[in-house]
Each structure stands twice: as structure tokens, then as C-alpha cells.
């Protein structure tokens, strides 16, 4: 033991001498700062003190101090070394505190000019260059300082002395907490690799910020003697957002750097910021493969820094210049030290051995160093790897290890190195040693020799962050009722709640805005001019904690339920979806002690809509029932596979994560009282306009011949809400609770309308007549909008009036026509004041919300929003707000969107969702054509609002819809990022077109009707439809549901699982399509799903089974081997078209809840075409409100037992509409178990004798029944590309002169010379090039052409050869389409000759559009596919050009 201690002291003495000479001798005696080097070269002055270099340089001193502390030495060296560390850290602290004003500004702006400086004068800590003279914004440097501060403070060093310093450190936390959205200049200080001064989002900066936030959280900067005011706080949502962004970035460093050696500091020492072992391994492996050389690692590919061919007279590089640095980039030994340290900290002995050995070849012995003739060391092969550090025979000389900054290729060896990388000897540069690298090298050797342990250097245990296992977190949910009346109504039927007044006096429940106000006081310091955290929303992780101050506990409701300024949360279905999404987010990202606790306050407003509008004529909407149903189902303990527990607030105290708010006690008690008072205020509103529900209802647009109602079905088809009947046996209880809630609404005080109410009258559907008249003397306005096709750059508003006139507004043509009872016509033109007073008179009389919003639209076009109307004693803004509130309450979504657009309303969380998309490298565009604006970085809410107003002026409703789409996209990318695979740019205008086309295709309506239906969709339905469009690849796979209707004979939408199904749902088999044991092709079950069958087989076998509540509670249908399960209570219908071999529709009707559901079911059955195969199966119960019409509808299909079916019986029916005599059915009583599997075989109709038309010609051609066409249309609108597409396109471009689309050209030079294959900016260049295709499907064919061109060039006969010319994409495409058409026309000449439409002209040019559409519906591969014809065209057009 004595020998080991003596040996340790001897070794420490050696390291002390080395560190004293190499590092401490350079520490300034006054400031404590250390210069990066003593060198002044043509590449820069290294004598300044960089923040990053100083922290890294002092790590060796810190490690040596801890090693001496371990031995409890009495020479004073421990104290000396520790205080050398403290002095440097305080020197950096003082330098930054002098720029406190910059920290304050940067918290709000994140602007490069407001950043802390990256380097300071070594002697004084003063600034050395101006704000604009250096790339100062380096978040990784500030974060590294905080990481070191947390570790050093935890190990016992006292660095922070005063409360002012604590407040400044807290503000540094706020300074870096938005690293995930702040482009900076990065670790190499120059941003974009071309050195053009453009900052980027960098993985290394975000990763170091993650490490800093994780390390500093909860650290008491005064150590063991500190109190609550010296504790540092980090908001969990900001930490999670940074960590999530980092995972989405890696292994990429930034847009211009596909990989960078700096990621080593993130996945290993000192950050340990990544917890996914697979991602760590993948990142390290990719970086090593691309960057590692004999002398170190390249910083990044094509790095010209300090190469002999670099032009040092300028900082930036010219176009095409980067290519000259390829394969001769300088290599930095620094990265070997990172890998050595990582191996030591994680216990990877092989990695330690490998990099010890590699370092021996680059670390120079000071006794052999000749600055005049620099050379790499020539170590003795027999000597140990750390021979320099071992005792030498010549004891008079101290052998210091010198780690050069980099090794470069000398000029005479440049060409040889380019031709054969890693073949030439390199030379160290003048900056030897680089103190930063030397410090890490010495630290690694201290640990290697056992003089220091990783646990001493990592007292917080951050190296143990890596964990491949996910914790199964239980989420606690506290439901509070607004008042006793609501509580009693809910408790009677099984939903136990407390009122806000009933909870203990120890608890207070506040909205999330109050928590943002609380943190505004954190870190505030008047002396330094610091205000604390900006008032930004606190996310669900922050509100899922409880907070304690002086023994009192505070709970905060989730932010997503606090959206008062936009109409989204007025849709209960969307609220359910948001709740599920946030619940999943909290579950998946909870890494803190205790359980997350979500506190929800149930209000009458949530149940009945806006309470101030609750009057006796308002009924509870079906979607509100779904909201109640959702909360009731939480009692089961599961929600989409997530374990939940409903409990009282007091029961959560022992299991919740509780954070302290004790910093408020001393500093902000008065403000806290103000916050409490402010957030308990309630708002009220007055009504000024009249309303007739019948008038407005009748004016709602619909598909001609179908009901035009905005009211929603009692349950959105496919929502996995389950049923509270699983827990209660009271018959009809749900109707009773709804009735009780309605009665509560009746007791509400009726507010005053400015205009008179009208009696209900019956009016025709608005869309059924050009101009529809309303109540007596009340004019009706008709105005509809149409978003144009992709080829158009403007949006047009047209009218249903019989005499259209133009609207004076950019890119809009509109007529507003008003007819009164005498048929007097009032024609209004936006911006024309000639009818201003008449419009006011009409507004006073109107009781139709559509008329009111159109009249107000006209009035606003003539005057400003705050224009006062004396006749109505209100401003236009107030009247629009009134119309908006009534439309939202009654769920007239088109009116709500129009009013919202006119008012310029914005969603507070819009910016957050934009950030979530941008951070995952998805660009967003707003508008179209010349007015299209691209968002590629984080933008503020005011900027977004202005952008939407400017670029969505064609249809005032487009702005709100764009906001909705961005919010839904943000939600999808958080919950299911795989939906965005292959997508770089999200063009909102084209997404709206894709949504419109989805509606138009499946409903066979025109564009104008489709856009009106799109505007009428509820927020949740719009979100669902968007989820369908986003799920492009899955449209040709299994596990995708089929088409459903939003109401009988109404709009077809697609029932998609918008989020990944969780384990419980999958295990129970209750959702979607399940592959049967006999198997089928994976790509055949999809919306408008093709029946799985062999091509020559004309049979279809259908089997169905039903189970009532007591018999298993399921309903399913098996069609040729594919099993589909019903997801909700009631009667479920599947309909199959026998002509096109398609499952056309799957609709669900909860006839247990209401007679309206039953009536809708009857209408649905009546709407089905004759000869369609109909499968009906019941789940749970469907009889309670089954009407005679519904029973007659079932009987008309052939049911003989329907009149005998009782409550919760099992019932299944398989029939052909129009052939009731051959129906197959089975009925079993509730307690007799499920029905047997009823089955029936059908034969599809042959169509050989049918005359060929454009509508049925697809039967003569190979087809996927519209699935591939639909996928290409959707993927094209979303700009989706396959995996590795951009790297392959780079190789195609590298082997030709350029790519051509008409007049648009993407040249080889300088594109491939400036950009590497994996570079994000290259992908964006290709994306912009493909954007010249106006047709989305055409764009996707272009993608396929480039993929096939790559495969052709990779063939052995063509590999490495150049295409002598351009790749003309449209020419190749048209050649393939022509060949496809001619092939199949020749095969079907006899059938086509009988058709008048094709008899005269069968050539491609005469039917180009039809031929192209049929071509777009071919699968990608197979015997008859786009690949077949495109490959043949490539052989004809490109192969002859290959030389």
C-alpha cells in the first residue's frame, strides 16, 4: 500500500510539472484566463482567451486536483490546483457578466448580434472584437461552461459566491434553453462550411446544451451551505425539446456538414447527451468511416482550414472551391483524445487500447520538437503507447507530450494524397501544442494510470445516461369539476370528480399561463438588468409536475387545454386527440422522479360550448359525448396502451414529481399574489346579432343531393374511445347524463342579442339553389370559394349566384347577391362602398350566420375592423367576434374559419409547431406561386401572422386552415415522425390541394364542392384527413382502414390510425386490419381497398362474426383472408363493389346512443347501390334507439331475425342489396355467446360486353384500383422521396452534365463540386428543382426516373462512366407513357374499336391525359409497372449517351 501511494505521488508530481509548464504557466495572474495558444500565424491570433478552450484547458488541472485530493496530500497542491480552476471559471464568469445586457436581449431575440462573445482578452477579460467581427454565437461554448460549473460545484469547488452570480447563471440557462431552434456558428466558429458567415443549427451545440441543462438542473451553486435561492431550475419541456431535436439531427451535424468530428463531444465526454445506444454507435461509426485518418480526424468533409491550397487572404470560399479540399483535409489529433476519454468513461477497453496506440503516432516529445522543422513522431515500436509520459534515462530534462492542433498534407504530396487518401506523411502545424487537446490527453492518461476515476470527473453520473430500456410510466390524471352541479351530474353516472372548491386548502389549481408568469420572476436581478425567463408557454411536462411553496401545493392545467383565442379547442374530438397526444408525449419523455400528474378541469363550456351562449335551443353535440366518453374510459386504467390512473389531487402527493417554488418566497411574494389574483378573473361577452339555427343549418353547403349539415356524428368513425358501458350496467344512462347536462345549460342566463330572433323556418339546402331565400324580408348571401389546381398560382373565389360579377380584391373574383322577399337584388363588390348602408340594414335583419359573416366580410373590405356601427352599437370587430363565437359553439366550421381569417386570429402554439417541424429539417411554405414564402428557421408569432395574411389572401379561410395544418403537422411529427420519412418541404397550399383532391376523388364531386366540404370539416376531421394524406406509403400496405362517411350519404373520408397503435390495442386486435392466418399480399389492404385475390380468381369469400357486450364485445369481417375489426359500439357496415373488386366503405353507427344515429344508418343503407355486397355486424349494443326505419332497412337486405334482436344481443348479416332471399345471418341472445362465423361466397361481375369509356377503361389496363395514383398524388403534394434518394441523385448528377425539366436546369458544376452527397443543402437544391413539376404525380414519376437512372449507372457495364449530355426527365417520362399506352391499346384494339370515344383515334397524343393517369396508377415494380416502362425508356434514351 505504501509502495502504491509513493508511486502515485511520483506520477502526480510528474503530471504536476507537465501541467504547470504546459497550462498553468500560461494562466494570466490577474484574470485567471488562459490563451488558446501562444502562436500567432497567418490563420489567426491564438493568444486570446476562448471560452471553450479555457474550459477544456482547465479540465486537466481539475482532474489533477481531484487526484491529489484522493491522496489527502499535505503539500498544498490540492488547494493550489483547485483554486486555479476556480480562478479561471470566475474569470470567464466575470467576462460574461459584463455582457449581462446581451444575455437579457438574447433571451427574447436569439439574434447573432445579441450573443455573448466567444473570446475575451486574456489579460483583462474585456472584449477583443466587435459584435459583427466574429462568429460569437456559440451555444456549445456557453453550455460547456455550465456543464463544467455543475460538475465542479457538485465535486465541492466553490465557484459562485453571490446571489447576483446565481441569478446570472440562471439566466444563462434561459440563454441556452432554446438551442434547439437557434442557429449558431458552432464549435468551429464559422457556421456554414463555405465560411460565408451564415449560422446553422448544429448538433454539437444542441447536444452540449442538452448536457448543460441536464447537469445544472437542481444544483445548489452555494453547495452544501446554500439555500433555496441558490438552486438552478431547468424547465423539463425545454430539456426534452433539445434532446428530441438532437436525436433527430444525429449523426448529421448541420445542413452543410453531413458529419462532423465535434459529435464525439456530444455522444461521449464531456456531454454524454444521448441516451440511445444504437444512435451513439451509428453516429460514431459513420463519423469514423468518413473522417478518421492516420493522424486524427478531419473536422468535416471538404474542410479547407489550414490546407496548403487554402487562400488565407479571405475567410470565405468561392463557388466550386470546396471540391479542391477533398481527400486532403487537415487531420486533428484532438478527436483521438475524445475517443480515448469516451472509452475510459464507458469502460470500453478495446477502444481505449486502440486510441492509446493511435495517439502515440501523433503526440510529440517536447525534447524532440523542432518548430523550424516540424515532423510527426517516429515512436519505437517496442515502447509502450504512453512512452513520453514514462520516466526517462535523462532525468535532467522534463519530457512534455505535445499534441499539435492538426496535421496537414505538404504541398509536394497533395496530388498523391488526392489519388490515394491516407498514403502520404503529414506535418504538424505551428500551433503546437493545442492546449485544449493537450489537456484532454493528460486527463485521459491520469484516468488510464488509475490516478483518477471516471466517477470523480463525473460526480453527477451523466455517463450513465445511456439506457436502451424505456420506463413504463404510469400517468396520473386528476379530474376536477367546475362546480357542484357538473360534479353531481357526472358522479351519478360513474365519473367521480372533485370540484375546484372541494380540494384541500393546501392545493391551488391554476392555468398554465400562471406558471409562465412564475418563471418570469426566476433569475430576475435589477442590478444586472435581468428579468428572468421570458413569458413563453410551459409544456405538458412542466404542467405534469406539482409545485410546492411554503407547504402549499400548486397544480397547473395543461397548456393545450388553455387555447382561448382560436377555435380548435371548441372541437371536443380534437381535444380528445390532443389529450391522447399529450398523454403519450408525457409518458414517452418522462425521465424524472415520481409520476407525471395531469390536472384537468372539466367545465360546462367544455361540455356545452361557450357558456355565455348556452340557451334552451342548444343541444349537446355528439362530439361532446365523445369527450365525456373519453374521460369515462380512463377509468379502465389504459389509454391507447398507456397506463393511467384517475385519482384525487391529494392522493398524488406521495407519487408525483414535486418541484419547489421557494425562490418566490424572498424575491417575488407580491408578484405571486398578483398572479393568483389575475388568473382567477373571468371574462364575459355580449351578443349583438340575431341567429336562426334553421336558417344557418339550411345554408350549409353540401354535396348536391345529400344532407348539408355541419353537425357531427355521435362518434367519429374509428375513434378508439370504447364505451362506458364496459363498466356500468344502467340502461340508457348516457342519454340521461346528457339530458342533465343540457338542463344545466338551460339554467344559464340568456344574453342579449343586438338583432331580433327569428322563428324557425324551413329552407332548402344552400348548395341546391343558386340563391336561397331565407326568412321573410331577410336577404341571403351566397359566396363560395375554390382553391385552384396545382398548375395555377392563384386562388379564385366564385359564386353560386346566377349573375356573377367581379370582386375587387387581388386574385379574387366574387359576387355577393342578396335577394329579399320581393326578389330585389343587392349586389356587393368587396371594397366598393356604394352599398355600404344597405349591407348594414341587411345585417340588422339577418339571422343566418353565413349571411352575417359574408356581410361583415364586405363591410370590413370597405372599412377597418374598429369601424363603429352606430345602428348596432358595436364595431365591426365586435360583430365578427360575436359571429365567430356563435359559429364555433354551433360547429359551423367554415364560418368560424372565415371570421377567424377576417379577425386575423392566430394560434399561440403555432410557432412551437413550426419549430418542431423545422428542427426535424422540414421546411414549410405558405402561399403559392410568386407569393409562396419558405420557412426554414424558427420565426416569431408576429412574423408568422403577417406572413399568412400576406400569402393567403386569395381565400380568407385559407389562413386559418394553414394554421390548423401546421399545428397538426407539428403534432404528427412529435407523435409519429415516421409519417414524414422522405419529406423535406411541406407546402401548405399544395397540402390543401391534396386534401381537396382526396375529397374530390372519393366523393366524385367537383373542385368547388370539394373545397367547401373541406372548409366544413371539423378540426378533428381535418386532422384525420391530413393524417391520411401523410400516410402515403401505407396506402399500399396492410394495417390501413377503409373509407368511411361523415354522415349517411355524405362526405367520404378515410379512417386512418393517426398515431402508432400501442401495445394494448395491438394485443387485443381491436383496431384496423389484421392479417389472417392464411395470409395475403401486404400491399392490398388500403383505403378504397382492393380485395385480396389472385388476378384470375373471380371469387370473394366473406365471413362475419358478432359478439354483444356479454359475449366478448367485438364485431369483425373477414374478406378473402383479411380481418377487419370494429372499433366502437353499435352497428357496423362494410360495403363491397362487385364491379371493381373494391371494399368501398366501412361506416359505423352508434344506434345505442340516439335515434339520429339510427336514421343515419337507414339513409346509409338506402344510399348503397344495387348489387353491392353488404356485411353488417353489431358490437356491444345497437338496439336501444334502433328506429323502425332502420329495422326496415335491415329487413330489406334480407334479415329475418332483426325484429327479434334484444339489448346487447349478437347479430351479423351478409347480403347482396337487391337480393334479400339469399341473405345469410345469425342472431344469438346476449348471454348465449358470440355468433358463429357466418360466411358467403360471391362472384364478381364480368364487364366484357360493357362499352369502353374513360370511366371504365381502367378495366382493360393493368391497374391498382387507384391506389398507386392516389399515393403518387399525395406523396407528390408532400414532396416525399424514398430512402437514400438524394445521395443517389448526387451520384447521377456527378455522372452527367446536368438534370433538365423543361427550361429548368440543375447543372453538375458547381452543384456536386460544392456539396457532398449527404449534405442537407444538396437535398434542398434537388427538392427545389423537382418543384418545377406542377402535377404531384408527375413529380413522383420523376423521382422514380432518377432512382432507376442511378441503378442503371451502377450496373457493372456502366459503372464509373459519364452520360454525355443532360438527363431530360420529362422526355424520358413521356417516352415511357407513350410505350405503355401503345402496348395496351394494341392488346385491346377489338374492345376499343367498339367505343365511339376511341374508335377514330387511339393514339397517345389524342388521349395523353388519360394515358398518363393510367400510367400513374401502375405499381412501381413488377411485370407491369412504371419500372418496366421507365427502364426501357432509359435504355433507349440514355444508354447510347454513356461513354
What is the element layout, followed by pairings?
Blueprint: H1 2-22, E1 40-41, E2 44-45, E3 49-50, H2 51-71, H3 77-97, H4 100-109, E4 119-120, H5 139-154, H6 163-176, H7 203-216, H8 236-249, H9 264-267, H10 277-291, H11 334-346, H12 349-360, E5 364-365, E6 401-402, E7 407-408, H13 414-419, E8 427-428, H14 435-448, H15 454-457, E9 475-481, H16 484-491, E10 498-499, E11 507-510, H17 512-520, H18 540-543, E12 546-549, E13 552-556, H19 572-589, E14 597-602, H20 604-608, H21 622-633, E15 638-639, E16 642-646, E17 658-660, H22 663-667, H23 669-678, H24 693-698, H25 733-746, E18 780-781, E19 816-819, E20 825-828, H26 836-845, H27 849-862, E21 868-869, E22 874-875, H28 876-890, H29 893-903, H30 910-919, E23 923-926, E24 933-935, H31 941-951, H32 958-975, E25 985-987, H33 988-1003, H34 1007-1016, H35 1019-1030, E26 1043-1045, E27 1052-1054, H36 1063-1068, E28 1073-1075, E29 1089-1090, E30 1099-1108, E31 1114-1119, E32 1122-1125, E33 1130-1137, E34 1142-1149, H37 1155-1167, E35 1173-1180, H38 1188-1197, E36 1210-1216, E37 1219-1228, E38 1238-1243, H39 1267-1277, H40 1285-1294, E39 1298-1301, E40 1304-1307, ...
Parallel strand pairs: 9-10, 9-14, 9-16, 11-13, 12-17, 23-25, 30-35, 39-41
Antiparallel strand pairs: 1-2, 3-4, 5-6, 7-8, 12-13, 15-16, 18-19, 19-20, 21-22, 23-24, 26-27, 28-32, 29-34, 30-31, 30-38, 31-32, 33-34, 33-35, 35-36, 36-37, 39-40
Amino acid at each position: 500500500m505504501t509502495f502504491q501511494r509513493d508511486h502515485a505521488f511520483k506520477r502526480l508530481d510528474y503530471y504536476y510539472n507537465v501541467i504547470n509548464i504546459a497550462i498553468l504557466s500560461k494562466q494570466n495572474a490577474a484574470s485567471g484566463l488562459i490563451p488558446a495558444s501562444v502562436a500567432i500565424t497567418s490563420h489567426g491570433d491564438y493568444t486570446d482567451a476562448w471560452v471553450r478552450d479555457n474550459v477544456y484547458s482547465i479540465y486537466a488541472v481539475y482532474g489533477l486536483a481531484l487526484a491529489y485530493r484522493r491522496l489527502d496530500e499535505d503539500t498544498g497542491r490540492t488547494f493550489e490546483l483547485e483554486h486555479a480552476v476556480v480562478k479561471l471559471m470566475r474569470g470567464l464568469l466575470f467576462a460574461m457578466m459584463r455582457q449581462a445586457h446581451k444575455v437579457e436581449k438574447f433571451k427574447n431575440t436569439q439574434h447573432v448580434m445579441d450573443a455573448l462573445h466567444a473570446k475575451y482578452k486574456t489579460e483583462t477579460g474585456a472584449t477583443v472584437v466587435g459584435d459583427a467581427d466574429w462568429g460569437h454565437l456559440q451555444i456549445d461554448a456557453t453550455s460547456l461552461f455550465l456543464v463544467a460549473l455543475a460538475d465542479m460545484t457538485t465535486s465541492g469547488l466553490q465557484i459562485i459566491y453571490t446571489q447576483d452570480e446565481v441569478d446570472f447563471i440562471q439566466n444563462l440557462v434561459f440563454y441556452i434553453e432554446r438551442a434547439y431552434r437557434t442557429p449558431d456558428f458552432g464549435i468551429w466558429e464559422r457556421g456554414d462550411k463555405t465560411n460565408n458567415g451564415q449560422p446553422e443549427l448544429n448538433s454539437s451545440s444542441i447536444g452540449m446544451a442538452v448536457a448543460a441543462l441536464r447537469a445544472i438542473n437542481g444544483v445548489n451553486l452555494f453547495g452544501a451551505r446554500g439555500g433555496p435561492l441558490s438552486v438552478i431550475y431547468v424547465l423539463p419541456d425545454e430539456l426534452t425539446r433539445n434532446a428530441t431535436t438532437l436525436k433527430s439531427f444525429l449523426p448529421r451535424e448541420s445542413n452543410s456538414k453531413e458529419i462532423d468530428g465535434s459529435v464525439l463531444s456530444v455522444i461521449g465526454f464531456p456531454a454524454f447527451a444521448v441516451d440511445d445506444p444504437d444512435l451513439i454507435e451509428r453516429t460514431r461509426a459513420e463519423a469514423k468511416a468518413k473522417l478518421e485518418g492516420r493522424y486524427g480526424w478531419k473536422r468535416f468533409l471538404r474542410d479547407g482550414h489550414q490546407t496548403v491550397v487554402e487562400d488565407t487572404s479571405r475567410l470565405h470560399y468561392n463557388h466550386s472551391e470546396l471540391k479542391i479540399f477533398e481527400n486532403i483535409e487537415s487531420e486533428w489529433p484532438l478527436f483521438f483524445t475524445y475517443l480515448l476519454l469516451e472509452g475510459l468513461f464507458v469502460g470500453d477497453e478495446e477502444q481505449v487500447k486502440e486510441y492509446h496506440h493511435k495517439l502515440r503516432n501523433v503526440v510529440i516529445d517536447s525534447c524532440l520538437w523542432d518548430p523550424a522543422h516540424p515532423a510527426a513522431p517516429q515512436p519505437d515500436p517496442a515502447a509502450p503507447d504512453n512512452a513520453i509520459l514514462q520516466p526517462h534515462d535523462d532525468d535532467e530534462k522534463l519530457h512534455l507530450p505535445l499534441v499539435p492542433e492538426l496535421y496537414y498534407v505538404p504541398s509536394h504530396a497533395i496530388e498523391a494524397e488526392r489519388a490515394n487518401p491516407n498514403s502520404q506523411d503529414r506535418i504538424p502545424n505551428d500551433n503546437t501544442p493545442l492546449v485544449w487537446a493537450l489537456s484532454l490527453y493528460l486527463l485521459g492518461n491520469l484516468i488510464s494510470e488509475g490516478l483518477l476515476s471516471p466517477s470523480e470527473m463525473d460526480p453527477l453520473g451523466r455517463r450513465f445516461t445511456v439506457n436502451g430500456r424505456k420506463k413504463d410510466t404510469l400517468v396520473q390524471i386528476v379530474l376536477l369539476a367546475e362546480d357542484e352541479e357538473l360534479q353531481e351530474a357526472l358522479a351519478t353516472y360513474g365519473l367521480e370528480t372533485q370540484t375546484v372548491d372541494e380540494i384541500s386548502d393546501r392545493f391551488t389549481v391554476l392555468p398554465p399561463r400562471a406558471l409562465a408568469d412564475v418563471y418570469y420572476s426566476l433569475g430576475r436581478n435589477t442590478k444586472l438588468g435581468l428579468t428572468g425567463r421570458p413569458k413563453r408557454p410551459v409544456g405538458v411536462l412542466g404542467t405534469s409536475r406539482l409545485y410546492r411553496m411554503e407547504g402549499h401545493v400548486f397544480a397547473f392545467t395543461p397548456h393545450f387545454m388553455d387555447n382561448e383565442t382560436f377555435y380548435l379547442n371548441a372541437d371536443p374530438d380534437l381535444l380528445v386527440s390532443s389529450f391522447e397526444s399529450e398523454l403519450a408525449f408525457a409518458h414517452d419523455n418522462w425521465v424524472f422522479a415520481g409520476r407525471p400528474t395531469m390536472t384537468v378541469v372539466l367545465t360546462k363550456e367544455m361540455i356545452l360550448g361557450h357558456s355565455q351562449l348556452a340557451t334552451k335551443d342548444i343541444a349537446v353535440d355528439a362530439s361532446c359525448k365523445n369527450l365525456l366518453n373519453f374521460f369515462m374510459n380512463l377509468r379502465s386504467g389504459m389509454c391507447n396502451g398507456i397506463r393511467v390512473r384517475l385519482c384525487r389531487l391529494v392522493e398524488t402527493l406521495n407519487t408525483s414529481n414535486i418541484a419547489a417554488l421557494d425562490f418566490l418566497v424572498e424575491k417575488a411574494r407580491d408578484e405571486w399574489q398578483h398572479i393568483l389574483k389575475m388568473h382567477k378573473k373571468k371574462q364575459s361577452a355580449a351578443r349583438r346579432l340575431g341567429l336562426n339555427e334553421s336558417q344557418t343549418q339550411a345554408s350549409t353547403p353540401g354535396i348536391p343531393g345529400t344532407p348539408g349539415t355541419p353537425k357531427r356524428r355521435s362518434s367519429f368513425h374509428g375513434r378508439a374511445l370504447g364505451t362506458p358501458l364496459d363498466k356500468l350496467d344502467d340502461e340508457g344512462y348516457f342519454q340521461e347524463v346528457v339530458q342533465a347536462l343540457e338542463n344545466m345549460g338551460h339554467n344559464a342566463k340568456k344574453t342579449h342579442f343586438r338583432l331580433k330572433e327569428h322563428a324557425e323556418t324551413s329552407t332548402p339546402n344552400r348548395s341546391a339553389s343558386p340563391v336561397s331565400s331565407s326568412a321573410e324580408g331577410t336577404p341571403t348571401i351566397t359566396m363560395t370559394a375554390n382553391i385552384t389546381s396545382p398548375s395555377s398560382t392563384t386562388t379564385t373565389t366564385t359564386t353560386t349566384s346566377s349573375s356573377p360579377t367581379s370582386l375587387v380584391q387581388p386574385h379574387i373574383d366574387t359576387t355577393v347577391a342578396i335577394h329579399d322577399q320581393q326578389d330585389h337584388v343587392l349586389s356587393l363588390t368587396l371594397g366598393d362602398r356604394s352599398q355600404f348602408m344597405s349591407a348594414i340594414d341587411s345585417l340588422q335583419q339577418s339571422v343566418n350566420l353565413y349571411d352575417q359573416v359574408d356581410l361583415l366580410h364586405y363591410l370590413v373590405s370597405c372599412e377597418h375592423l374598429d369601424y363603429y356601427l352606430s345602428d348596432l352599437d358595436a364595431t365591426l370587430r365586435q360583430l365578427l367576434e360575436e359571429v365567430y363565437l356563435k359559429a364555433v359553439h354551433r360547429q359551423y366550421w367554415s364560418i368560424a374559419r372565415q371570421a377567424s381569417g377576417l379577425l386575423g386570429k392566430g394560434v399561440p402554439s403555432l410557432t412551437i409547431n413550426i419549430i418542431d417541424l423545422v428542427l426535424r429539417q422540414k421546411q414549410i411554405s405558405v402561399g403559392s406561386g410568386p407569393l409562396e414564402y419558405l420557412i426554414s428557421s424558427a420565426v416569431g408569432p408576429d412574423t408568422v401572422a403577417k406572413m399568412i395574411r400576406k400569402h393567403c389572401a386569395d381565400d380568407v379561410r385559407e389562413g386559418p386552415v394553414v394554421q390548423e395544418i401546421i399545428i397538426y403537422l407539428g403534432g404528427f411529427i412529435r407523435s409519429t415522425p415516421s409519417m414524414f420519412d422522405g419529406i423535406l418541404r411541406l407546402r401548405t397550399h399544395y397540402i390543401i390541394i391534396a386534401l381537396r383532391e382526396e375529397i374530390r376523388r372519393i366523393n366524385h364531386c367537383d373542385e368547388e364542392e370539394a373545397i367547401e366540404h373541406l372548409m366544413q370539416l371539423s378540426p378533428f376531421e381535418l386532422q384525420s384527413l391530413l393524417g391520411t394524406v401523410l400516410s402515403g406509403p401505407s396506402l399500399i400496405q396492410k394495417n390501413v382502414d377503409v373509407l368511411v362517411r361523415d354522415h349517411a350519404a355524405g362526405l367520404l373520408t378515410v379512417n386512418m390510425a393517426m398515431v402508432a397503435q400501442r401495445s394494448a390495442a395491438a394485443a387485443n386486435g381491436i383496431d384496423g386490419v389484421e392479417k389472417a392466418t392464411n395470409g395475403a399480399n401486404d400491399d392490398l389492404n388500403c383505403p378504397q381497398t382492393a380485395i385480396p385475390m389472385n388476378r384470375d380468381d373471380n371469387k370473394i369469400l366473406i365471413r362475419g362474426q358478432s359478439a354483444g357486450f356479454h359475449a366478448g364485445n367485438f364485431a369483425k369481417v373477414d374478406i378473402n383472408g383479411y380481418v377487419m375489426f370494429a372499433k366502437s359500439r353499435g352497428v357496423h357496415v362494410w360495403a363491397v363493389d362487385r364491379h371493381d373488386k373494391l371494399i368501398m366503405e366501412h361506416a359505423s353507427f352508434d344506434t345505442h346512443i340516439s335515434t339520429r344515429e339510427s336514421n343515419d344508418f337507414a339513409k346509409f343503407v338506402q344510399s348503397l347501390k344495387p348489387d353491392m355486397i353488404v356485411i353488417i355486424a353489431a358490437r356491444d349494443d345497437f338496439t336501444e334507439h334502433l328506429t323502425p326505419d332502420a329495422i326496415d332497412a335491415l329487413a330489406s337486405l334480407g334479415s329475418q331475425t332483426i325484429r327479434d334482436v334484444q339489448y346487447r344481443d349478437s347479430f351479423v348479416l351478409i347480403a347482396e342489396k337487391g337480393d334479400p332471399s339469399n341473405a345469410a345471418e345469425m342472431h344469438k341472445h346476449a348471454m348465449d355467446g358470440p355468433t358463429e362465423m357466418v360466411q358467403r361466397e360471391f362472384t364478381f361481375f364480368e364487364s366484357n360486353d360493357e362499352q369502353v369509356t374513360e370511366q371504365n377503361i381502367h378495366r382493360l389496363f393493368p391497374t391498382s384500383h387507384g391506389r398507386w395514383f392516389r399515393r403518387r398524388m399525395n406523396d407528390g403534394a408532400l414532396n416525399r422521396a424514398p430512402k437514400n434518394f438524394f445521395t443517389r441523385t448526387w451520384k447521377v448528377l456527378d455522372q452527367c452534365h446536368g438534370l433538365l425539366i423543361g427550361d429548368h436546369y440543375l447543372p453538375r458544376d458547381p452543384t456536386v463540386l460544392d456539396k457532398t452527397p449527404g449534405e442537407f443543402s444538396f437535398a434542398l437544391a434537388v427538392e427545389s428543382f423537382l418543384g418545377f413539376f406542377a402535377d404531384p404525380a408527375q413529380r413522383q414519376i420523376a423521382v422514380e426516373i432518377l432512382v432507376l437512372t442511378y441503378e442503371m449507372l451502377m450496373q457493372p457495364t456502366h459503372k464509373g462512366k459519364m452520360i454525355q449530355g443532360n438527363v431530360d426527365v420529362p422526355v424520358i417520362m413521356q417516352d415511357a407513357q407513350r410505350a405503355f399506352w401503345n402496348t395496351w391499346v394494341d392488346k385491346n384494339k377489338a374492345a376499343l374499336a367498339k367505343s365511339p370515344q376511341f374508335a377514330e383515334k387511339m393514339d397517345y397524343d389524342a388521349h395523353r391525359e388519360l394515358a398518363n393517369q393510367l400510367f400513374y396508377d401502375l405499381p412501381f415494380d413488377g411485370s407491369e409497372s412504371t419500372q418496366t416502362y421507365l427502364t426501357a425508356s432509359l435504355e433507349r434514351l440514355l444508354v447510347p449517351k454513356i461513354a
